Amino acid sequence: MPTSKLYDIAIIGAGCVGSAIAQRLSKYDIKTILIEKESDVSMGATKANSGIIHQGYFTTKGSLKEKLCLRGNELIDEIGPKIGVEYERIGAIFCATNKIEHETLEGEYIKSQNRGVEVELITELSRIHEIEPQLNDNVITILHFPRAGIIIPFELTIALAEHAMINGVELNLEFEVVFIKRDTENDVFEIHSDDGKKIKAKTIINAAGIYSDKIARMVGLEDFIIIPRRGEYILFDKDSLPLKKIIFPTPTPASKGIVISKTVHGNFFIGPNATEIESKEGINTTSIGLNEIIAGARKIIKNLPFKKNITNFAGIRASTHQHDFIVEESSIPQFINVAGIDSPGLSSSLAIAEMVEQILKKKCGYKFIKKGDYIPTRNKQILLSDLSEKELSEKIKENPQWGQIICRCEQVTEAEIVEACNGPIPVKNTDMIKRRLRPGMGRCQGGFCLPKVMKIISREKDMILERVTKTGGKSFIVFRRTKLLSSEVIDKGDLL
Fold first, then answer.
1. Does this model's pTM top 0.85?
2. Active site residues
3. Whether residue 300 is found in the same domain as residue 425
4. Same domain membership, residue 269 and residue 413
5. Both 301 and 238 in a single domain?
6. pLDDT tens for residues 230-279?
7. Is 471 found in the same domain as 400?
8. Is there a single domain that holds both residue 36 and residue 11?
9. What is the secondary structure of 145-200 as a DSSP string?
10. Are strands 246-249 and 309-319 parallel, antiparallel or unpaired?
């Protein structure tokens, strides 16, 4: 095997946290690599996330969740615009329907004020329904956090990873870590993949999400156990319910409860529930879970337009018995754990990256020298929705692909898909295009546009159509042209 390149830092896991750490470190003259076992970034808990910018509410005083959520809420205004990420600060409300819940919200109101958080406790019914007209009449009190917001989790993660790559961080996808050897003589770690590849690094940052306990055990650490907690969602079509706020019930010790919220792109969702399961891959939805979500939402809002339901999905959160984030250098020198990042992990991700930087400075001996050629911004890809009629007309004159609508639900053109295919992160499958441009996320869920997207990927990436996958690996979409099947003897091996 050829000699492996030596990196200063290897980050394992390219979710929102790992990508935020990579983006943070990319400004310094440090050789950094971001490692991910899937075919794209944002494929774990980040992908199936509520996409809420929390404001530090209902967190334990003095916890990392409290500290990092509050700081992360600030940092999104500093970093988001620089890397071309859309978000909206629409505000969040917690709803009480009885005296006990009212007292809970009253207590949190005092705690939030003591934290310095902007918050308002409202009991006047006319004001409650002015703030959110969709609430049921049984809501007697709301706790309003105006600095809460909504963001698309995978769009944030892609932007962070791409900005890191623009500034020299390497991204190694489809690298599943199966073994880590610590070379104490040379003070380096050897990180081995399932297909025999090897990466050497002086420092490892373990941001592997649901698998972070597995990665920690590879170096002999058994400090924590990740408890898979499934959250299920129901997603509705655009403009099917005119919500003004992110709506929560009064939380319980186990969960913030069933959320009702719109998204940046105009859909709305209800969910998630919180069910501890054994499997780290258990992202199936269940009839029991979906009914639980529906019952929870109906307690707070008047109408659920189920005829506008377009899909259901689930994600896994990485919870621990510590009930707090784990962000620390472990007992193994130069091995940093960033684990147990459940809610409000997305909101905290930029602050977690900031904290990891401080750990690297204080405990790992890194001298952070800023790159002279550091590029502080990332240009967002221009979309059809960004263009005026005049601008679109000019684009079509320059490139007729701007006039070819591929996805009618989300209004995505061939030109946009071609550009995404050739972006900083190599596109290899249809879901990668879906996360970048949204074809397949609309009303028909890809029923009409999927074949067209496949053909564009096939052409742009110079691969036969049969090798274009949905999510990578063996998730093939087509096998043969129908006319050929009748004249062929099919070997079972062809289907694998």
1. yes
2. 54
3. no
4. no
5. yes
6. 999 999 999 999 999 999 999 987 677 899 999 999 999 999 999 999 99
7. yes
8. yes
9. ETT-EEE-HHHHHHHHHHHHHHTT-EEE-S--EEEEEEETTTTEEEEEETTS-EEE
10. unpaired
